[in-house]
Amino acid sequence: MFPRFASQVFWGLDKKLAQRKHFPSVNWLISYSKYMRALDDYYEKNFPEFVQLRTKVKEILQEEEDLSEIVQLVGKASLAETDKITLEVAKLLKDDFLQQNGYSAYDRFCPFYKTVGMLKNIIAFYDLSRHSVETTAQSDNKITWSVIREAMGNIMYQLASMKFKDPVKDGEAKIKADYDELYEAMQTAFRNLED
Hints:
By secondary structure, the chain is mainly α. It has nine helices and two strands, in the order E-H-E-H-H-H-H-H-H-H-H.
């Protein structure tokens, strides 16, 4: 008699991702793990913000999937400003966080501190963008996604470039310091934008 093993993890491969040269071509919406909570004690002790960041990323990617159907029907211009932010941040997550280049030194592996630092900055950009749009919606100094994109071009470039930090060459202390510096620069840029 053979022992029975129940699979607790499913990685759904996506042909469309593979055709777009997005590797690994794992579909983040249909893949799942029943071990999601298995490491919560470790995360709580070492990276307390990770579980909340992971949950937020999943929400953004799911919302982006729902919005993409609307965009196909009526176009992106008809979306609310906060929905445009969701689409752009989802693009950052998919192209600059989830996509890997296993042949490069910077992307061959990703230490957990780098993962958490990247997520922290991307989600901070998402939250700050939404806050700016929502708090100025009724004011004369209305902030839209196009205003944010124009004013934050350098910040967005730095967010997209976070993955190029080489853990071996740059080291943990420098990468963490660079990510913290970017976080502070975002805070300052959004405060200046709203003033």
